[in-house]
Amino acid sequence: MPKVYRTMKCATDRFPVVESSNQGLGVRSDLQAGIVDVDLDADGFVVLNGHGMSVVPEWRKLPAFLIPSRLRDRCHKARGDNQTACFTMGAGPFQDGVFADQLELRKDKPHHGCIVPSASVPLSQFESNIIGTRSQWVIDEE
Amino acid sequence: MSNRLFSRSSDYLHCLRGMHQLHALNLSGQDQTDEANRIRGQMEQVWWNLSETEQERLDGLSEDLYTLSDGLWKPSPTTPETKLLQEQYDHAVQTGNWDEALNSLRLVAHFLEPAAVSTLRGSIWQSAGDPETAELFYEHSAHGPRNGQSDPAKWPLFPGQIEVPQ
Question: Which of A64, A72, A81 sits opposite B37 (nearest CB)?
């Protein structure tokens, strides 16, 4: 399972907040909001085009505006929301492959990839699979 | 890649302007607001369309912009590596490699007076075809202390040697 990082809001139980946003454990699919992480077909199934929940191989590889600014002492560019934390999950190299049950990592750049469904499933199923990983994410800001 | 102007692609400019906006919000103490998060969300939408060079440039800009609002500067003692860093910077300026110039300057910035560094950064961004970002640094330079010296050739560390992009 590849090791990935993502900044997300931290719930009181120290696990990521489940939320369809760029700051939560989830994906955005609401076209009306103008920002989507996944594309859906006419039947509401997730299109397998590499789009999904954005992740990186190291938290310092995140763009400056996604690294909490409270981490400036160890990452001088940090300019992100301090309500978020750098979460990680997995242990293997950052390469295409199985990430969790019915989920895969698909790289689109050396330092970026997306968590995508292993097969085309309804959006609700994809979201459930992502939420199913919640207890496996831990904070790592070292 | 030498002597090239920085990108003016729409995605790059979108992220550049977002960085300017986050900097302005930081200066006014509003960088931890919903408005700031809205800007961050919009930047993320196109961030991964940028080249690695563009991403590194904007991440570096984020770090450099903090120097415009940070507190008192304490000069660092020079080291044997200082001369090498100066040569790297000079070569980058002479060849118009603006990204390398910004990166090299960042490595020696703590040896130099902040106002002097801002003037140099402004000159580099201006030379790279981005007067808006240059102005942010020029403005700081105009109001910052220079220990009475307005002539770059008399600034600390590289007297008479440091290159100011024309």
Answer: A81
Closest residue to A112, CB basis, from B41, B48, B62: B48
* Complex-level ipTM: 0.90
| Position B161 in a domain | no
> Across the beta sheet with A103-109, what order do the strands follow?
A53-55, A112-117, A103-109, A97-100
Number of domains in chain B: 1
User: Measured on CA atoms in the order B87, B111, B78, B53, is the torsion positive or negative?
Assistant: negative
Nearest CA-CA distance, residue A82 and chain B, Å: 7
Tokens of A51: 């789009």
User: Residue B74: exposed, middle, or buried by beta-carbon count in 10 A (0-12, 13-18, 19+)?
Assistant: exposed
Rounded-to-integer distance, Cα A126 and Cα A140, Å: 25
User: Nearest by CB to B32, which of A21, A78, A82?
Assistant: A82
Is B116 part of a structural domain of the chain?
Answer: yes
Which residues in chain B have their CB less than 8 angstroms from residue A23's CB? 37
In a 10 Å sphere around its CB, with 0-12 CB exposed, 13-18 middle and 19+ buried, how is residue A106 labelled?
Answer: middle
Identity of residue B56: E
From CA A104, how far away is CA A14, in angstroms rounded? 24
Q: Which domain holds residue B23?
A: 10-154
- Per-residue pLDDT tens listing for chain B (166 residues): 556 899 889 999 999 999 999 999 999 999 999 999 999 999 998 999 999 999 999 999 999 999 998 866 677 777 778 888 888 999 999 999 999 999 999 988 888 888 889 999 999 999 999 999 999 999 988 876 544 444 554 444 443 345 566 6
Distance of residue B50 Cα from the nearest chain A Cα, in angstroms: 11
C-alpha distance from A3 to closest chain B C-alpha (Å) = 19
Any domain includes B5:
no
